[in-house]
Design goal:
Structural class: alpha+beta
Helix content: 25-40%
CATH architecture of the largest domain: 3-Layer(aba) Sandwich
CATH class of the largest domain: Alpha Beta
Number of domains: 3
Distance between the termini: 133 Å
CATH superfamily of the largest domain: DD-peptidase/beta-lactamase superfamily
Strand content: 15-25%
Shape: extended
């Protein structure tokens, strides 16, 4: 009896303990759910929600004529959340009704899978109830607009489960044109203008509250709502001319391939302003393959004979005359125990300073240095400072190297240093600095700062203009500048550039250069030569200064400045002359002709009929039913002839008003640039020449 009572007591006690525990659990559950529910739900949300940085839309880089050189293009990643309730209602009726037409549409748009393959993929993801099924990545805006109208997807995100995540990709519409100058902002290693103007282009990043879903993907909690809205970057307008850039790159590339060169740079500067219109940088990246791998325009190198301009300038400032006599010693001269040799053993002895410069004599320039600067080196170094050859050019590109100038007292200073500097050795400067130097001579002694950006815009409005800046109004005396003009023109008519410019339509002033340079760690033993030509044109009224510097392969047979860099220079100059300069010169010489004596107009025939209806003018009409006509004559004689307008060839727009010419050209997809006022007197694309949309045409008005 006592045993039974003892057992029952223990059973009842255990039962009561279990009941108490159950009551405690239920009570705690009620407390957590009802009393602390909001706290724990908020904590859960905080683990799945966070604030992320939203990159601001980057500003656009434009050419001077308004063409986009680097801009943002939206790209979209398309995901599908198959967990949304409408897809599973009524046993998935909506999904099963729309899946076939959706897959047909996807297959037709992307052409990468059959409709059946799409259906199998999406059905499998649907049945697995995937929360972030990746459908497509990096589709463009047009594809996004199309896909958002597809069956099922057009019902919206919360019904179809389609999620579009927008990402901006930096693109260059002209592909890799001017890559090292314009740059691309695809990663943290920005280059060119993208780097120099990063803070201007970059804007201000925003912040947005997002929710994490499966697979680490985040989606906005509220679409379009930001904690801090991103601020779009500003646009910059560069001085780059797309036509000149393309011409420069093409000419340089052709010679690089032809001569199997290692590196090359070609630059075009506007004389009066210092605007850089084009920079092409090419480096060898494979057998016969070249790319804009580094900015060679700002990397210092021994300039060679183009530096002889500095020696001649300084000597002229010290009283030397171009017709002074100098002995070239037959082409070889010894100084300080070291030989100075001209490129060719010409056998010349006594000649003039001018002729020594025209023939690019190392002996002649070394003798000028010894005779005028060795006794007082500071004279030479003072002139280097005046020419800013001891500092950077100031171009708005990062990474420009400082000139390497050896001075008395330096460890590497020797008795031969100054004479060797006289013909371009024992000194290193960047090509952009050489270009700036020669441009100052073209500009009558006024040294302009080279620059690439002329304006900063915000929402299409100019908020900052960047104009030309003169570093110096007189790098030398007027007499010296005039003498240098004579010397540089003489190089191209009587000296090392004579053959190159023998049949040129315009006068050139410039200097050839051929320098033995070090080939990395292998030094000078591999006979690597740098070929250069720097000059300006037309010599009588300079418009552009061009520099071309090419480093050839070891032991290259063709390595002289006149035969490697010179043809590149001439090809660029020829295109610029025929496109931008020749027409202006022809127009200038014809200003004395008056329209009352000789006239040429082009206009719509309907406009002409209105004129002759109100003003009785006798004329001969052979235009039949043509919409456009050409009216020509002299005095009281007038003739109307038909204007044939083709869709594929360039019409004759000479004689048209600017309004008509622009309308007709833009209708054909041409990009119009014009100078002057009045009616059209010349066009850069000849009548009858084949044309393509996007092609540029230069129009000169009278």
């Amino acid at each position: 009896m006592d045993v039974k009572r003892d057992i029952l007591w223990r059973v009842y006690l255990s039962y009561l303990i279990v009941v108490a525990i159950c009551i405690a659990i239920l009570g705690k559950a009620f407390y957590i759910q009802q009393i602390q529910g909001s706290y724990w739900r908020g904590l859960s949300d905080s683990l799945h929600q966070r604030i992320i940085s939203i990159p601001a839309e980057r500003g656009t880089i434009y050419s001077e004529d308004g063409q986009m050189l680097s801009t943002n293009m939206p790209r979209f990643d398309i995901l599908i959340d198959f967990r949304v309730a409408p897809l599973h209602e009524k046993n998935g009726k909506l999904f099963r009704e729309k899946i076939d037409t959706l897959c047909d549409s996807l297959s037709y748009l992307f052409k990468d899978k059959t409709p059946q393959q799409y259906k199998e993929e999406l059905t499998k993801a649907y049945e697995a109830n995937e929360g972030n099924h990746e459908l497509k990545k990096k589709i463009d805006y047009r594809q996004y607009l199309t896909i958002s109208k597809f069956p099922l997807f057009k019902l919206g995100r919360y019904t179809s489960g389609m999620i579009a995540i927008e990402k901006n990709t930096r693109l260059n519409p002209y592909e890799n044109i001017g890559y090292r100058t314009i740059g691309l902002a695809r990663d943290e290693n920005k280059v060119g203008l993208e780097s120099s103007y990063d803070t201007v282009l970059g804007g201000q990043n925003g912040r947005q509250l997002v929710r994490a879903i499966a697979g680490g993907v985040t989606v906005p909690v509220q679409e379009g709502e930001f904690v801090v809205s991103p601020e779009t970057g500003k646009d910059i307008v560069s001085n780059i001319d797309v036509f000149i850039q393309q011409v420069t790159e093409k000419a340089l590339m052709k010679m690089m391939i032809e001569n199997a060169a290692q590196t090359g740079v070609a630059m075009v500067m506007e004389v009066k302003t210092g605007k850089i219109k084009a920079i092409a940088n090419l480096g060898k990246v494979g057998e016969g393959k070249y790319a804009e791998d580094l900015n060679y325009s700002t990397r210092v190198t021994e300039p060679g004979s183009t530096f002889k301009l500095v020696t001649l300038l300084t000597a002229l400032e010290q009283g030397v005359k171009l017709d002074d006599k100098i002995n070239l010693e037959g082409g070889t001269w010894s100084y300080g125990g070291r030989p100075v040799k001209d490129a060719e053993q010409h056998g010349m002895h006594e000649t003039t300073v001018l002729h020594a410069f025209e023939e690019s004599s190392n002996v002649g320039m070394a003798k000028l240095a010894v005779g005028h600067f060795v006794p007082n080196p500071q004279v030479y170094y003072k002139q280097l400072s005046k020419l800013r050859l001891d500092s950077t050019s100031g171009i708005d590109l990062q990474g420009e190297g400082r000139p390497q100038i050896t001075r008395p007292g330096d460890k590497v200073w020797a008795a031969t240093t100054l004479p060797w500097m006289g013909f371009g050795y024992a000194v290193a400067i960047a090509p952009i600095q050489t270009l700036t130097l020669y441009n100052s001579i073209a500009n009558n002694g006024i040294m302009m700062r080279p620059y690439l950006v002329n304006a900063i815009k915000e929402e299409g409005k100019v908020i900052k203009s960047i104009g030309p800046k003169a570093y110096s109004w007189a790098v030398a005396s007027p007499n010296t500048i005039n003498a240098l003009h004579t010397a540089l023109e003489g190089v191209c008519t009587n000296g090392t550039g004579k053959k190159l410019f023998a049949n040129s339509l315009y006068k050139v002033a410039g200097k050839t250069g051929t320098a033995l340079v070090a080939n990395g760690t292998k030094g000078y033993s591999e006979s690597v030569f740098q070929s250069s030509f720097v000059g300006y044109f037309p010599a009588e009224n300079p418009q552009y200064t061009i520099a071309v510097i090419i480093i050839n392969h070891p032991h290259a047979a063709n390595h002289f400045g006149a035969s490697v860099a010179g043809p590149v220079w001439k090809e660029i100059a020829d295109r610029l002359y025929s496109t931008y300069i020749q027409n202006r010169m022809e127009v200038a010489t014809s200003f004395h002709l008056k329209d009352s004596q000789l006239f040429n107009y082009a206009l719509p025939k309907s406009s002409f009929k209105s004129i002759v209806k109100n003003i009785p003018i006798p004329f001969r009409d052979s235009t039949l039913n043509n919409d456009w006509i050409q009216v020509q004559g002299a005095g009281s004689n007038m003739k109307a002839t038909p204007q044939v307008i083709s869709d594929t060839t360039m019409p004759n727009i000479v004689g048209m008003k600017l309004q008509d010419a622009i309308w007709l050209c833009e209708k054909k997809g041409l990009l119009v640039r014009c100078t002057g006022k009045g009616k059209v007197v010349s066009q850069s694309i000849a009548q009858g020449q084949l044309i393509a949309r996007g092609q540029q045409i230069q129009i000169q008005l009278n």
